[in-house]
Amino acid sequence: SLEESTRQALGLVAAQLEARAVQVELRFELDLPKVRADSRQLEQAVIHLVTNAMQALEGGRGPTRSIRISGQRQEEGVFFEVADNGPGLGPDAARVFDPFFTTKDGGGGMGLGLSIVHAFVTSWDGRIEALAAPEGGALFRLTLRPFGA
After folding, report:
1. Chain center to CA of 141
2. CB–CB of 19/51 below 8 Å?
3. Three-state SS across the chain?
4. Strand pairing of 22-28 and 65-74?
5. 67-101 pLDDT, tens per residue?
6. Distance between CA 98 and CA 120 in Å, rounded?
7. Whole-number Cα distances in Å, 22 to 16, 57, 109
8. For 6-10, 26-30, 45-49, 100-104, which range has the lowest pLDDT when averaged over its residues?
C-alpha cells in the first residue's frame, strides 16, 4: 500500500530526519485503494522526495522544519503529496524534473533524484507536478491510478 511503502521509506531516512530536526506529518485517508506502482520503486520515490525536501529545509525560514506527506482519493485517482515549509521552488519549478538540474550550491546533489521519480511515476501511467505549497515551500503531487483501473 501507499502508506506502507511510505513508512518503509521513512524508516530508511529516519536518522537523517532526526539529525536535521525535521518533523514529518503523515495524513493518509483510511482505506485508500492500492495504486498501480512497483512497491520498491515507490519506496525509492518517497526517499528521493523526502531527501529533496529535507535538503530544501536546510535553508529554512521558520522555527520548525516540517514535511507533510499525504494520500487522498480524488476523482482522477489517488493524490500522493510531499510538501515542505522550505524556501519553495521559485522560477526553477519548470526544470526540477530535468536530469542533472540542481539548485544546490557546491555540488550538493547530482540533480537526478526528481528525474528518477518522474521516470517512475510516468512508467506507472501516473503524473507528477511541482507546485507551491499553500503553507509556503514546495509541494510535489503524484497522481496515481488505482490498481485495476
Report:
1. 7
2. no
3. CHHHHHHHHHHHHHHHHHHCCEEEEEEECCCCCCECCCHHHHHHHHHHHHHHHHHHHHHCCCCCEEEEEEEEEECCEEEEEEEECCCCCHHHHHHCCCCCCCCCHHHCCCCCHHHHHHHHHHHCCCEEEEEECCCCCEEEEEEECECCC
4. parallel
5. 999 999 998 899 999 999 988 887 777 788 877 77
6. 14
7. 9, 8, 19
8. 100-104
Question: Which one, of 136, 139, 137, 68, lies nearest residue 128 by Cα?
Answer: 139
Amino acid at 111: G
By C-alpha distance, which of 21, 30, 24, 20 is closest to 10?
A: 24
Do residues 83 and 24 lie in contact, with contact meaning Cβ atoms separated by under 8 Å? no
How many CA atoms within 13 Å lie on the side-chain side of 40? 0
Spatial contact of 26 and 71, defined as CB atoms under 8 Å apart: no
- β 138-144/65-74 pair status: unpaired
Q: Which three cell numbers stand for residue 116?
A: 528518477
C-alpha cell at 5: 511503502
pTM of the model: 0.90
C-alpha cell at 12: 530508511
